[in-house]
Structures are given as structure tokens and as C-alpha cells.
Design a protein that fits this description.
The complex is a heterodimer.
Chain A: E1 10-13, E2 20-23, H1 24-53, H2 58-61, H3 66-91, H4 97-128, H5 137-166, H6 173-203
Antiparallel strand pairs in A: 1-2
Chain B: H1 2-9, H2 14-37, H3 42-64, H4 72-96
Helix pairs in contact in B: 2-3
The chains are: A mainly alpha, B mainly alpha.
Chain lengths: 204, 100
């Protein structure tokens, strides 16, 4: 397999011998992730402050399904592994790279869909018991936080699926090899958000 | 002999490192769950669960997102919103959480 041509724009920092280059796309995705930290961080800190103010919401929190949440955490952590393996295999320039890339991306997509499927089942269980978003402040926060996160998972699945389809075409494999790093950064960020959401909503 | 010593001292990388990080993440998840089901004081349990979450997040960010090998500017980019959010929460804590 031929090496992917380096046509990325870069941003330079420093001067003289200490000059460093960061690909413009990487800098852009980190800026985007910083804005996402503000969104989720703002919501989570509001949830924490109001929870302390309302005495912990222990009665409401006792009704969330922590076992289902723990299973979903395991699913998302495993999807992070398959995404990291896809990124690692994308850096290798040897035979079978495209096939491995598609396999790992495929696993990541399936695990993302599993996460959403389990979340949908969890929502239906809670709705059946009458715990709708209008059932109280705790449930309003619960659905906002987990719903917004699920939308991000859905966006990641769409992104990974477009890369998976593109990786099937031999002429697009070098493009996918470059872009998968950025898709991976987004996917891992979604995982990090859940790493904090799970204990915040389910275990406290 | 020399070869085996060299193999031992070579740090793991690539897919092997990805797998090792995942093992740590899953281990920390189970430690958090164990703390949750163990009858210990709630404040201590919450502290331990969130400490495990912070370690997991650091592992993902540094190893899977490769921030450990990045330019310092990206650290600043990632940490600035975290500091702003923490500052906002601490500033609002007396007014919202401990209002009589």
C-alpha cells in the first residue's frame, strides 16, 4: 500500500529552532471538543449544585437502573478500544490495513448501536414506571444529560459509518487513514463524558 | 540473553498498549462498582467512585486521544474549559447549594 500523501494544512507555533507544527484539522477538533466540554461541564455542574441544594435526590436516584448503566459503560469502554485499534491500524502501512480498519470501525459502530439500543430499553422501563422528563427536576436533568450524550453517540456512529463506507473504496483509504484520527478523538471524548455521567447520575 | 533483556525493557505500544489501557479502564469500572455496593460512608464512596472516574478519563485522554504526545497548546485548550467550569461551580456553590 502506498503511503498517504501529506496534504494537511498545519499551524506553526514558536520561532527559530523551537518551531512546532500542529495540523490545522487537529487544532480545530480540539477547539470543538473544548466547546463541548463547556456544554457538558455546565450541565453537569448545574446538576451537582442543584442536587446538593435539594438534599441529594436520593429517593429519585434510587429508581435509575445502575446495572444497565454499568453494562453500557462497559460497552462504551470497549468501543473506545476498537476505535483506538482502528486508529492504530490506520497508521500501519502494510497489507490488510484497510480490512482491519473496516473490521475495527465496524465493531465500534455495532457497539455504539448497542449502547443506544440499551439506552432506549432503559428509557422505556423508566417511562413505564411514570418517570418521564416532567416527573421532577431530577428526571428532567437525567433525560437532558443522557439524551444529549446519546445524540453525540448517534453523531459518532454516523461519522464512523461514513468512514467505514469510504474505507471500502481503495482510492479513499488514504483519506480515511487521515480522517479516522479526528473521528477517534470525537469518539473518545464521548466516552470520557460518559465516564463522568455514569457515576454522577447512577452511582451517587 | 541480550535480546530478551531488550524485549523486557521495550515499552509496549500500538495495539498491545490499547488493550492494556482497556484492561485498566474495565478494572477501574469494577472497582467503582465494588465501592458502590460496599456498605461504606456515602461521602467516602462518592469520593472513591469519582477518583476512579478521573483516573479513567486521564487514561483515555492521554493514551487513546494521544494528548500525552501533543503540543502544550492542546493541553491549554483542553484544560481551559475545565478550569472555567470548576471555577463557576465553586463560585455558585455558596449561593445555590448552601442557601438557607
Amino acid at each position: 500500500m502506498e503511503a498517504a500523501p501529506n496534504i494537511e494544512a498545519v499551524v506553526q507555533f514558536g520561532d527559530g529552532d523551537s518551531i512546532r507544527e500542529i495540523p490545522a484539522a487537529r487544532l480545530a477538533i480540539w477547539l470543538f471538543l473544548a466547546s463541548e466540554i463547556m456544554v457538558f461541564g455546565g450541565l453537569m455542574s448545574c446538576f451537582m449544585l442543584l442536587r446538593i441544594a435539594h438534599g441529594g435526590w436520593d429517593a429519585e436516584a434510587a429508581h435509575v437502573h445502575w446495572r444497565i448503566g454499568a453494562f453500557n459503560t462497559l460497552v462504551l469502554l470497549t468501543s473506545s478500544l476498537t476505535m483506538a485499534l482502528a486508529c492504530t491500524s490506520a497508521k500501519e502501512r502494510k497489507r490488510g490495513t484497510a480490512r482491519r480498519l473496516r473490521t475495527y470501525l465496524g465493531f465500534t459502530i455495532v457497539l455504539g448501536l448497542t449502547f443506544l439500543g440499551v439506552k432506549a430499553c432503559e428509557y422505556s422501563l423508566e417511562f413505564a414506571k411514570g418517570f418521564t422528563p416532567g416527573a421532577g427536576l431530577f428526571w428532567a436533568f437525567y433525560y437532558t444529560l443522557t439524551g444529549l450524550h446519546s445524540l453525540h453517540v448517534l453523531a459518532g456512529i454516523i461519522l464512523n459509518t461514513t468512514l467505514w463506507i469510504a474505507a471500502a473504496r481503495a482510492d479513499l483509504v488514504p483519506v480515511v487513514q487521515r480522517r479516522i484520527e479526528y473521528a477517534g478523538l470525537y469518539w473518545h471524548f464521548v466516552d470520557v463524558v460518559w465516564i463522568f455521567l455514569f457515576p454522577l447520575v447512577y452511582l451517587t | 540473553m541480550a535480546n530478551s533483556m531488550q524485549e523486557k525493557s521495550t515499552p509496549i505500544a500500538g495495539a498491545a498498549l490499547d488493550l492494556r489501557i482497556w484492561e485498566w479502564l474495565v478494572g477501574l469500572l469494577f472497582i467503582g462498582l465494588l465501592v458502590f455496593v460496599t456498605p461504606i460512608p456515602k461521602v467516602a464512596a462518592i469520593g472513591l467512585v469519582f477518583a476512579a472516574a478521573v483516573v479513567k478519563a486521564v487514561l483515555v485522554v492521554r493514551k487513546y486521544m494521544h494528548l500525552a504526545a501533543e503540543h502544550w497548546l492542546l493541553y491549554v485548550l483542553a484544560l481551559t474549559p475545565v478550569v472555567l467550569i470548576a471555577g463557576m461551580a465553586i463560585a455558585l456553590l455558596p449561593d445555590i447549594a448552601f442557601r438557607p
